[in-house]
Amino acid sequence: MSTVATTDTYFDIKKIRTDFPILQQKVNGKPLVYFDNAATTQKPQQVIDAINKYYEGYNANIHRGLHSLAEKATTAFEETRLTFQKFINAAESEEVIFTKGTTDSINLVATAYGRKFIKASDEILISGMEHHSNIVPWQMLCEEKGAKLKVIPVDEKGEISLDDVKSLINKNTKIVSVVFASNSLGTVNPVKEIGQLAHKFGAVMMIDGAQAASHCKVDVQDLDCDFFATSGHKMYGPTGSGILYGKREILEKMNPYQGGGEMIKDVSFEKTTYNDIPYKFEAGTPNIADIVALKSAVEYINQLGKENIVQYENDITAHAHKRLAEVPGIHFYGTATNKVSVVSFTIDNVHPYDVGMMLDAKGIAVRTGHHCTQPLMDHYGIDGTIRASFSVYNTKEEIDFLADSLKDIVAKFS
């Protein structure tokens, strides 16, 4: 099997693949074919080098020190904030808060905003395709406050209807939190339009952007969302890194998420005065090395060009649907008109876990199970799916190998 595309592409796929050291290895004696990008993307050498450079050259705590290493580390850390501000088009860098990732960001909002502003009889609206991290924090908040969690239904194609959103939003709705792009189905939701409906009733709009940051255009001012969360590790960056965007006027009204260093101005035993945003929400020593390296991940996406990435991934995803449709007994889940590079499916008479293990024996990494979206799997009446998710370093030849391998697996069970 060739792992390098032989057809014309929007950029040099062979060069891109050499940027990712992990892709050069073999798994179970076979060339690695990595189709688990919705779980986490691989890291280019630029990101790996940035982590090493920090630890080898200027490892120091930030903001508090006046010595040269501390100043260098602080500058690099804050440069990532400025880079991310431009990447999502935030109005100012202070609206970018560093977190551990999307889950941490959603919990921050549920705690720091929800506990202060949500009361009994209020309603929080999410969709039926949410990741557990955009369900459980709101459930916990509703249980604590006596509020009600409402769910926008998902149709058979894996889409949600704005008519359903309109019927569910009312004067009691205080928070609407919806995934930009589904990790299980690939569906891209009309989050801008949903936000407009939320704002008509005075609700705040939060977007889970974990799957969108490297696949979709993200302009938080155009979206007019109140909060936007994403994770570094799903956009070629390090694990344990991410951001929460929030509008200044809302962030300034919120209570701190955690107490400790950095989020304070003055502390006495009688009273503590909190720091300004974004530091009010960044207690303690942060994940400095990985936040510094996150800048390199953003720069890598910018270097390739978001439009080029989207066009290429759309092309290989269409190819995947075409080739996988040849597999006997296959059923697709998530056939939305507008979707990112995720293909979820089941195969008659073969358990997803068995498929995953047999593909792994061929060096192909896919994800099997409920993908942290159990309510969505329940909606479809299945235990889980086989999910192949693609990134900019994947090729049509790899997809052809996947399709042929699935045909071989089906033949063994027939």
What do these coordinates show?
The protein is of the alpha/beta class and 414 residues long. It folds into two domains: 139 residues, Aspartate Aminotransferase, domain 1; 254 residues, Type I PLP-dependent aspartate aminotransferase-like (Major domain) (Aspartate Aminotransferase, domain 2). It has 14 helices and 17 strands. The strands form five sheets. It has a seven-stranded mixed sheet with strand order 4-10-9-8-7-5-6, with helices on both faces. A four-stranded antiparallel sheet has the order 13-14-17-16, covered by helices on one side. Strands 1-2 form a two-stranded antiparallel ribbon. A hairpin with a 2-residue loop joins strand 1 and strand 2. Helix 2 packs antiparallel against helix 10, helix 3 crosses helix 10 and helix 4 packs parallel to helix 5. The chain is globular. The N terminus is likely disordered.
Integer tally of domains: 2
**Proportion of residues in extended strands:** 15-25%
CATH level-4 homologous superfamily of the largest domain = Type I PLP-dependent aspartate aminotransferase-like (Major domain)
Structure summary, number of beta strands? 17
Sheet with the most strands, sense and barrel status: 7 strands, mixed
User: What would you report as the Rg, rounded to the nearest angstrom?
Assistant: 22 Å
The CATH topology of the largest domain, please? Aspartate Aminotransferase, domain 2
User: Which residue ranges are poorly predicted, with pLDDT under 50 across at least 5 consecutive positions?
Assistant: 1-8
Count of runs of 4 or more consecutive helical residues? 14
Q: Level of helix content?
A: 25-40%
Any idea what the CATH architecture of the largest domain is? 3-Layer(aba) Sandwich
The outline comes out as: globular
Average the pLDDT over all residues and give the rounded result. 95
Rounded to the nearest angstrom, the distance between the terminal CA atoms is 25 Å
